Amino acid sequence: MPESKGPHPVVVVIHGGYWQSDVGLDSIAALSEKLTKQGIATWSIEYRRIGQAGGGWPGTFTDVSQAIDYLPELAKKNNLNLNRVVIVGHSAGGHLALWLAGRHRLPSSSEIKTDGTPLSVKGVISLAGVVDLSLMEEVLSISEEVTREEFNPVRELIGGSSAELPERYAQASPIRLLPLDVPQVLIHGALDATIPIGISQNYKKVADNINKNVEFIEIPSAEHFKLINPESEAWPIVIKEILTML
Question: What is the pTM of this model?
Answer without folding.
Answer: 0.96
